[in-house]
Every structure is written in C-alpha cells, then in structure tokens.
Amino acid sequence: MPESFAPPARTLMGPGPSPVSPDVLAALARPTIGHLDPAFVDLMDETKGLLQETFLTQNRLTMPVSGPGTAGMEACVDNLVEPGTTVVVCRNGVFGDRLRQMVERAGGVAVVVDAEWGRAVPPETLADALVEHPEAEVVAFVHAETSTGALSDAETLARIARDHGCLVVADTVTSLGGVPVRVDDWGLDAVYSGTQKCLAAPPGLSPVTFSDRALERMDARETPVQSWFLDVSLVARYWNADGAKRAYHHTAPVNMIYALHEALRRLQGEGLEAAWARHRRMHRALAAGLDALGLAFVVPEAERLPQLNAVWIPDGVDDAATRRRLLDEHGLEIGGGLGDLAGRAWRIGLMGEGARPGPVLACLGALEAVLD
Ligand code: PLP
C-alpha cells in the first residue's frame, strides 16, 4: 500500500490555488453528513446568503456550482446561449478565449473584440462592436484576466452592453474578494467565480449568480441546455428550492461547502472593503520590492490587478529552472506565463491568505536569492 500523502510545505503565490487558512482546512475535515440532511440544507441556505453578500447582489439564484471555475463559466455560457445566439466576447488573454470556445460549442456565434494582452479591454472597442452587430444578445468578458494581470472596467463594459440591450456574462474568478465586484450596481447578469483565489478556499467550487433578466432568458429558451449537469433550471431545484420541494440533483461536495462557508464567514468578518484594501496594500509592498529587484511589470499601473502581478522575466534568466529553484529551495510557488506570455513572464499571486506581509516578504527574499 502506498504511503499516505503528505504535501510538502509551500507558500502559494502563483495564479491559484492560494493558501488556505487552518480554520478553513479544519472545516473541510469535519464529518461528512448527508447532502439532504436538514443541518446541511441550513448550511446551504447560509452559504447562499454569504455568497449574495460577497457578490453584492440580491439575486435569488446565487449558489456554488460543484466544479472548478471552468464549470461556472460553462454554466453561465451554456444557459444563456442557444444555437444562433450572437455573443460579443472580449478577449485580452487566455480566459477570454476560453469564453469564445464555449460560446461556439454551445452553437452561438462569437464576435471577438480583441484587446492587447496585458491591457484592460478598451470600452470603446466593445461599443464599436455592438454598433456593428446589432443582433448581439449577450456580451461576455473577463473582469480580472489571470493570464496577464490586467483589470478591466466591468462597470463601464456592462453599461455599454446593457445600453445595447445585451445580457452581461462576467468572469470574476480572480476578482471576487480581491477587488470590488458589485453585481447589482453594475448590472451583471450571469457571473461566475472560483473558490481558490481571493476567496481563500481550496479549488473545486464555482460560485455563480444569475439576475432575474438572465432567468427570464433561460425560461424563454427554445432548446434545452446542452449540458444536463449544468442546466441551471435543474440544479436550482436543489439549491434554490424551499423545504420539501428541494430535490436531489447531484450529490453536493459536502465538505467543500463546509470549507467555502468558513472562508466566506471569515471574509465577511474582515469586511469586503477591508479585504480589498489589504490586497491593494500588499500589492504596493510587493510592487516596491519587485521594482527594487529590477523586475518590470507587464501591465501599466492604472490597469494592474493587485492580486496578480505579472512581471517580465529578466534577460538571460531560465524560466523553468528558476521557478524550480524557488520551489525546491524556498518552498515558493509562483506562476509561469500562459499563452502569449509563456516563457516571457512570471505571475505572482497575492490572493486571499497570500495577501499578507509574511508571504510578500518570503517571496521577495526568495526571488532576491535566486536572481542574485
Ligand atoms: N477564469 C479565470 C479568469 C481564471 O483565472 C481561471 C483559472 O485560473 C478560470 C476562469 C478557470 O477556473 P478553474 O481553473 O477553477 O476551472
């Protein structure tokens, strides 16, 4: 029989997963109970309430999808897109392109608005595309592009989309909990996130929220959602129903809901605004240190995500060998570049529990040692 797995000590400062606090890990290790047990159902309701507070929404349909961020992404796209639906997809990195692929797999017509990698999506390019494509019904964009560290102006993009009568799909996988995300104030219709970034829980759940406008569109569908598992009208009977009407859909990952509940409880205890401010503060400290080490940012300052810091790899430095040394000699994980930035940039995460002075100092110290 193999030995029981003991993970090595790591400081997680990549693009996710982020470090998980001992309280959240302890919640995860509590005894599993039935997924229709009245005590668990109460926990589900409380978790929904905590998610509404985190997304800053009153949306009735707010819940964690059982699956990683990509599952929430697919739930949003598949439920709003039918064969022939035109969707304007803003693409300024890897995850915007993933949205495009999903739209096309759902039978939709993707109109891609390309923006430079490492930059926010310019709102005027979206406006131009919507003038050119009056048939568009949905706009999709990534608020915080983890592949580059660029933060787009979700509020303005959503306003433009709504002015053209479109529903808004927003990816908040890396933004939620780290920078402001105001679902109701900004008029976002289908929003997904992930547990493993600034929410500071392990990977495996994707919080989603749908506006009433999105629900109306789903009710009016002419074709069934292509995925049975992610058909929100079916899963809502489990997450969004009261009392005896609550029906089995799939077996929820019970212990992961314990962990998410604990992480959200801690976030509310700190306060959302305080958590956003902490991410900004830690980013400023890290940026000052990176600057002192001579590492230059990929993204211009005004468009930078505090929680994902992409820096150019200095000339003559071996990407893979350096990251391996960080891991082996310092127990530090940072991310390599994705897509266009592969081999050219490092991505340093300051997410959730990673956005604390200890990890920032450990990261700067380790980088200093390996780049010496
Ligand atoms: N969207 C963004 C912006 C992400 O950063 C990620 C993951 O890093 C995803 C979607 C997909 O999430 P997951 O890897 O949990 O499926």
TrEMBL record:
Look up keyword Transferase and say if it applies.
yes
Kindly list the cofactors needed: pyridoxal 5'-phosphate
**GO MF:** transaminase activity
- Pfam families under this entry? Aminotran_5
Q: Where is the Aminotransferase class V domain?
A: 33-337
- Annotated PROSITE patterns: AA_TRANSFER_CLASS_5 (PS00595)
Q: Which family does it belong to?
A: Belongs to the class-V pyridoxal-phosphate-dependent aminotransferase family.
Q: What is this protein called?
A: Alanine--glyoxylate aminotransferase family protein
Q: Which organism is it from?
A: Rubrivirga litoralis
